[in-house]
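input
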Amino acid sequence: MAIRPLTTDHIDRVYYRVQDHAEAMFSHRINEQTELRLMERHYAGDLFKTIDVNREYLRAWHPWVDVLRSVSDAEKVIAAWHQQYANNRGFYAGIWFDGRFCGIVNHLNVDWLNRITVLSYWLDAKHQGKGIMTASCRTLIEHSFNVWKLNRVTIECVTENARSRAIPERLGFKLEGIVREAEWLHGRYADHVIYGLLRSEYA
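output
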């Protein structure tokens, strides 16, 4: 299963200009209820609204919500995501469930030299427990190995974040270790756990 039209040849030709919104677009339907879409500027309202109503829930593990305080802030963030996409370093996909935006799954960075990518994600509190994020991550993993021919996918999260840790564990990732005091989180240093999956291990 491949997300269309994201091939390496296509991404090499992508150039995003915020001024005229001339972005390349993709969408991929995972199942009857769930769809991934490349985040575009006109989704800024959906992004901000979802973050705002989930602010306290998300803030426990994602302190960046503190700096996203308006639709204008969301537009700037999406513009930065498109710059990453234009630079051939991965993309941010919005998750729609039953036609409603509910979260993000994304590449933090794609290292083409070493054929590695790092995935990150978050989901609206009301959509937890439906298998949405597991299915969304599985789609990006399939794309990473089958289309981009990467060798390794990594997921890293705070050790106490049980919901986030359940995703790589459910998808067959290997627990590779703990990075001590990897993140300054609400007045303390938090340890991160690292999970990895190799193309040779992927079924």
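quick obs: The longest strand covers residues 100-111.
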